Each structure stands twice: as structure tokens, then as C-alpha cells.
Amino acid sequence: MKPARKPVIAIDGTFASGKGSLAKKLAAYFGYAYLDTGKLYRALALRALEAQADLGGGPSLAKLAVLIRPGELANPKLKSGAVGAAASKVAVHNEVRAALKAYQVNFAHNPPKNVSGAVLDGRDIGTVICPQAEVKLYIDAKPQIRAERRYKELLSYGEDISLAQVLADLVERDRRDQNRAAAPLKPAVNAHLLDTTNLSIDAAFEQAKTLIMALLKPI
Ligand code: C5P
Q1: Which segments of the chain are extended strands (E)?
Q2: Does ligand 1 have an atom closer than 6 angstroms to the CB of 208?
Q3: pLDDT-based confidence at residue 218 (cuts at 50, 70, 90)
Q4: Cβ of 122 less than 6 Å from ligand 1
Q5: What's the rounded Cα separation, in Å, for the pair 173 and 133?
Q6: Taken in order 47, 96, 113, 121, is the CA torsion positive or negative?
Q7: CA of 88 to the centre of ligand 1 (A)
Q8: Residue 3 has pLDDT above 70, yes or no
């Protein structure tokens, strides 16, 4: 008899929608492995910026992408606004997405330390990376609220930026992520939508947890 597949929770959504915090809390609660797939694109962006590579060159960026090692994903430099903006530029290339796909698919289906499931968050997890995921969530919130959250975060990293600039950057990032030809950000057809505009992280977690427990319940 084929062993049962380990469940995958796919969480997609807009920038600063709270999907990362939610994904982390869910992974801890269910005892699953967690992968923030944005870190892969950020790690590539950092490599490209440091090498002064052309962010418009898909094939050469893909060669850099295959060199990324898991240890790099913890680099605090990945959190900066400049690296995030560059990440959304390198992410438009099909070649880059293809080069980063195997790592994500493998993580989802063979989570590290042999734990019993995986949570991945990103932009195309439910649509491209794990279309068969047992649970798909799509997280969004009003741009003004997301900008305020991100502004506070950037201030805590010591970045010198205005709220108006954060909002403008965020709108630009949404536009690029949602309108690119390669794996554009959109809810998977069977995704459950969660709007966190008026929800704390704890409230969003409670709603998601209840939904996931119902979906993963043995029939
Ligand atoms: O989520 P985060 O802000 O770290 O992602 C940075 C950028 O990486 C996003 O704006 C998006 O363009 C890209 N990305 C992606 N697909 C993913 C994760 C991130 O295209 N699965």
C-alpha cells in the first residue's frame, strides 16, 4: 500500500499581508517544516546586487539561482527593502522560477527532519509549486494597512524611509507580482481567502487553524 502523502499547507498572498507570520505560527502549531520561499528570491537578488549582475537577464540569473544554499536564507541582509524590491525584479523571469522550483517542491514533499508536513509561503505555491496542496490559503489586506505594518518593520531595522514611500513601493511591487507573465500572484481556484485588514496575527491564526483542522480531519 502506498504511504499517505504528508500534508502541504500552501500560503500565498500580497506583500506584508501577514502571510509570513501566519505561516510560521501554523508550522509551529502543527509541527510542520516551514519555508519562506520569498527568501530564495531575496537570496538570489542579494547575490545579483553584490555581483552587479543585470536584473533583466533571466538565463544568467538562473545560473546564480542554482548556487543558493539553505544557509544563505538566514542572512539578515535579505530583510531590507532594497533586496525585496530587487527580488520582485529577478522573480519575473521564467528561467529563475524554473531554477528555484525543484528546491521548493522537494521541501514540500520531503520536509527536513522527517517532520509530518510542510508549510510554504510565497506567491505561486498553490498555483504552481504545490497545486495538489491539501490546504491553500490566500492572504491579503488593504494596501494602507500593509504599508503601515511594513513601515514599522523597516524602522525597526533602522531604515530611513517615509510611510508614503513604503506605500508607493508596495503598490509598485503588487503591480509587478500580479501582472508578470511567469506565475503571477493570484489566488488558486480552490484557495481559501483571508483578509487580515482588521485581524491581528492571533485572530488570523485562529481562523486559519480552525479551517486547516477541518480540512485535514480524516474522513
Ligand atoms: O515575500 P517576499 O516579500 O519576501 O518576496 C519577495 C519577492 O519575491 C516578491 O515580491 C515576489 O516578486 C517574489 N516571490 C515570488 N514567488 C514566491 C515568493 C516570492 O515571485 N513564491
Answers
A1: 8-13, 33-36, 118-122, 135-140, 192-195
A2: no
A3: confident
A4: yes
A5: 26
A6: positive
A7: 6
A8: no
Q: Identify the residue whose C-alpha is closest to ligand 1 atom 15.
A: 123
- Asked whether residue 192 carries a pLDDT value surpassing 60, the answer given is yes
The correct CATH number of 8-206 out of 3.40.50.300, 3.30.390.50, 3.30.710.10, 3.90.550.10 is 3.40.50.300
Within 10 A of 28 (CB to CB), how many other CB atoms are there? 12
pLDDT at 73 > cutoff 80: yes
Q: Does the pLDDT of residue 216 top 70, yes or no?
A: yes
CB 15 near ligand 1, within 6 Å: yes
Partnered with residue 122 across adjacent β-strands are 12
pTM, to two decimals: 0.95
pLDDT at 157: 86
